[in-house]
């Protein structure tokens, strides 16, 4: 008789409890004394105020303009936000961006070095900038703003070079994407009115009805002669001017050859395994033949133009990957887990009209705001590598829609991985930098010997969101293509790309959902895909993220001998600590013990603050031994688990950067005697625009796997110890576990 499988253990939240932990803020000596700070900054503010006063009146809505505050690199954390200074100066922080600077002085040992920091965009009346500049020499220690003065490294007025990105094309009159700050004055609507008037005074016609408003930013298109771009950039609340990107190429990466011939296939003669399970795919459309099956439904949004045959090929292939994964000659197609709603968002105008990508994004936004999907795939997007200093409209819109954590969204990272790495042209493409979605790269094989597919874009992502792609999945290559349905649905045709890796990864998540029903949240399924990914010691995390997605459902949902995998799902309250025990059996263990932990959450984002993009973060403290304490300590001694160096090997980021990632994943080995009722203390912290704030509760998921190869009955012993708390999550539908 076959052994009963050891399924995932659920109800991990029953082990958790709130805990009080006092953490005093670490005090830092100021790098500058008050007199030193005044001497440094007074002339900087004076020069900037003079520059802002010289701007055209039309460029300053209601007399307001924007300056740039560069924070000292040692004072970028939210607790050091210079709120008192800004209030007394009558300035308001309306956004920020990551930057690098070499401070004049610092309190570390050695000479100051170039270090990561933050630049704040601050809005104020021009006369207030001038007033504060003149008042700096008279500040004393009794003035609240004097306590913040040393936190500022410099202050300046923005220049064209701060706002205008290099244009790649040599078009005389390019279509531009303009990004505006839309807060910081009593009547924010005046900013858009003033920009439209200012642009028209230059002879330009901004297309206001095609704009996207997200949080404190507005993204809008305008066509401008190259010689007027610097003039346009003088508008005070303008953040960025960049070239409007085109669509990622959707042409096949490989073609049929003698070794990769198409072959006939027959669709399953059945309904989807779970008729209630639906996924949304946004792409180039599907064929009529696929639409006429029980597995996919074609949707054409209102106003969409005629379909393009090449786009329909791509959309049909992507949908095939969601339904069947890679098709293998000689093996019957698997029964799909659910149904795909395919929304065609590309038409014959997409490649010709640069505004069509805005229309595609608008179609996607309208669908996601009107219909609720638990599974979404995007294998399309702008042909644009991500940037460290600005968030694109696609990313901002998607993160806003996905912030509730109720959807598993997979996004292809793009196929430009063979471009120059040093220049950033091979970097993951927009919108795969979304922190509330899962960025998927491509592996070149399904076998045990695999690598990153050469075409698959690489990381790093932007911080937060540094690990991009988070995982890779099989996407095919010339010697091992990814076979998908053609438009007839009777032929499997070869191709390759992250376009197929992404929906294949989504399919694995849908399989978990079909297997376990509502027992696992979307965040838990996302955590599971990351948690069970296969790492590689030979490949950089920036190439493959945390590893290759598991090749079969067994690896996700069944615990082998010597392993126990526990799922925690719950809610975190801002500012409070949640004590989360790691389940170990009673008694002693033999040999080495490996702990693997993966946290996932979703949160609201601030696209106007790329360096402070996520509003939520986790500060996780690991305590391996319940009986080992530091002297006079209330809680057991801590040991590093999730480390900054996991995200930042070159120490290019701020010290607290890793605490604001929406996914944390790590594996560590321990001698069994060093573990005694280990725990994670989880502190959920919130911020808004980089400063402390009051936030809402958020949902989280945590997966912990305990592995002790010499303890074959580990699972049973853990179940026995926690029999009133942990329970196996039993399948609601028996899924044929054959995904390869």
Q: Notable features of this structure?
A:
single chain, 5-stranded antiparallel sheet, globular, 17 helices, Alpha-Beta Plaits, 7-stranded parallel sheet, Rossmann fold, Peptidase_S8/S53_dom, 740 residues
Secondary-structure blueprint of this entry?
Layout: E1 9-10, E2 17-19, H1 34-53, E3 64-71, H2 83-89, E4 92-101, E5 115-125, H3 126-135, H4 146-149, E6 152-156, H5 160-163, E7 175-181, H6 189-201, E8 212-214, E9 217-223, H7 229-232, E10 238-243, E11 263-264, E12 278-283, H8 288-291, E13 296-299, H9 309-324, E14 339-344, H10 356-370, E15 375-378, H11 393-401, E16 408-412, E17 438-443, E18 471-474, E19 482-485, E20 491-495, H12 498-516, H13 522-531, H14 541-544, H15 554-557, E21 563-572, E22 577-581, E23 592-601, E24 616-623, H16 644-647, E25 663-671, E26 679-688, E27 691-692, E28 698-707, H17 714-721, E29 727-728
Parallel strand pairs: 12-14, 12-15, 13-14, 15-16, 16-17, 17-18
Antiparallel strand pairs: 1-29, 2-22, 3-5, 3-6, 4-5, 7-9, 7-10, 8-9, 11-20, 19-20, 21-28, 22-26, 23-25, 23-28, 24-26, 26-27
Helix pairs in contact: 1-3, 9-12, 10-11
């Amino acid at each position: 008789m076959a052994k009963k499988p050891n399924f995932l253990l659920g109800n991990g939240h029953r082990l958790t409890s709130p805990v009080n932990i006092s953490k005093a803020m670490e005090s830092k000596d100021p790098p500058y004394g008050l007199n030193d700070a005044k001497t440094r900054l007074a002339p900087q503010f004076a020069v900037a105020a003079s520059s802002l006063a010289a701007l055209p009146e039309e460029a300053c809505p209601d007399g307001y303009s924007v300056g740039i505050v560069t924070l000292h690199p040692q004072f970028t954390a939210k607790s050091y936000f210079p709120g008192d200074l800004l209030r007394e100066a009558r300035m308001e922080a309306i956004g920020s961006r990551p930057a690098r600077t070499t401070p004049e002085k610092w309190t570390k040992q050695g000479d100051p070095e170039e270090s990561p920091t933050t630049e704040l965009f601050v809005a104020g009346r021009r006369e207030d900038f001038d007033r504060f500049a003149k008042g700096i020499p008279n500040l004393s220690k009794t003035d609240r703003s004097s306590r913040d003065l040393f936190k500022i490294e410099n202050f300046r007025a923005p220049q064209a070079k701060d706002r205008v990105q290099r244009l790649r094309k040599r078009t005389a009159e390019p279509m531009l994407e303009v990004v505006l700050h839309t807060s910081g004055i009593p009547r924010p609507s005046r900013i858009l009115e003033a920009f439209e008037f200012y642009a028209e005074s230059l002879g330009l016609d901004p297309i206001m009805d095609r704009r996207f408003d997200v949080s404190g930013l507005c993204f809008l298109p305008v066509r401008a002669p190259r010689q007027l771009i610097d003039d346009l950039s003088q508008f005070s609340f303008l953040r960025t001017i960049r070239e409007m990107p085109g669509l990622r190429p959707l042409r096949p990466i490989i073609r049929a050859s003698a070794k990769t011939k198409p072959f006939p296939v027959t669709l399953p003669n059945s309904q989807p395994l779970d008729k209630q399970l639906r996924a949304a795919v946004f792409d180039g459309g599907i064929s009529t033949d696929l639409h006429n099956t029980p597995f996919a439904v074609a949707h054409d949004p209102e106003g969409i133009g005629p379909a393009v045959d090449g786009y329909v090929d791509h959309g049909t292939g992507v949908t095939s990957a969601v339904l069947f994964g890679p098709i293998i000659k000689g093996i019957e197609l698997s029964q799909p887990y659910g149904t795909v709603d395919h929304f065609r968002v590309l038409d014959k105008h997409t490649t010709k009209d640069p505004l069509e990508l805005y229309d595609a994004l608008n179609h996607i936004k309208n669908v996601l705001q009107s219909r609720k999907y638990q599974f979404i795939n995007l294998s399309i997007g702008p042909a644009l590598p991500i940037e460290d200093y600005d968030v694109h409209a696609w990313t901002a819109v998607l993160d806003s829609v996905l912030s509730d954590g109720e959807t598993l969204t997979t996004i292809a990272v793009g196929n430009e991985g063979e471009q120059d790495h040093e220049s950033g042209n091979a970097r993951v493409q927009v919108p795969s930098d979304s922190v509330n979605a899962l960025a998927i790269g491509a592996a070149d094989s399904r076998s045990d010997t695999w690598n990153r597919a050469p075409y698959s874009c690489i990381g790093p992502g932007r911080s937060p969101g540094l690990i991009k792609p988070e995982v890779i999945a099989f996407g095919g290559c010339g010697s091992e293509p990814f076979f998908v349905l053609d438009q007839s649905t009777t032929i499997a045709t070869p191709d390759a790309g992250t376009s197929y890796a992404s929906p294949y990864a989504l399919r694995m998540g849908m399989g978990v959902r079909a297997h376990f029903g509502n027992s696992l949240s979307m965040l838990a399924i996302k955590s599971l895909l990351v948690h069970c990914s296969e790492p590689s010691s030979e490949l950089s995390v920036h190439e493959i993220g945390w590893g290759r997605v598991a090749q079969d459902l067994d690896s996700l949902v069944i615990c082998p001998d010597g392993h126990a995998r526990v799922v925690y799902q719950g809610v975190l309250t801002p500012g409070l600590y949640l004590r989360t025990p790691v389940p170990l059996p009673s008694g002693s263990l033999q040999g080495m013990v490996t702990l693997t932990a993966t946290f996932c959450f979703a949160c609201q984002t601030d696209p106007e603050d790329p360096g402070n993009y996520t509003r939520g973060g986790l500060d996780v403290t690991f305590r391996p031994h319940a009986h080992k304490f530091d002297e006079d300590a209330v809680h057991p001694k801590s040991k590093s688990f999730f480390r900054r160096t996991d995200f930042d090997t070159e120490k290019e980021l701020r010290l607290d950067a890793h605490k604001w990632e929406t996914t944390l994943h790590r594996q560590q080995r321990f001698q069994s005697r060093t573990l005694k009722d280990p725990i994670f203390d989880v502190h959920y912290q919130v911020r808004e625009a980089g400063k402390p704030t009051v936030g809402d509760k958020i949902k989280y998921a945590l997966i912990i796997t305990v592995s002790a190869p010499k303890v074959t009955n580990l699972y049973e012993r853990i179940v026995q110890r926690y029999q009133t708390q942990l329970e196996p999550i039993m399948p609601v539908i028996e899924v044929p576990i054959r995904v390869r």
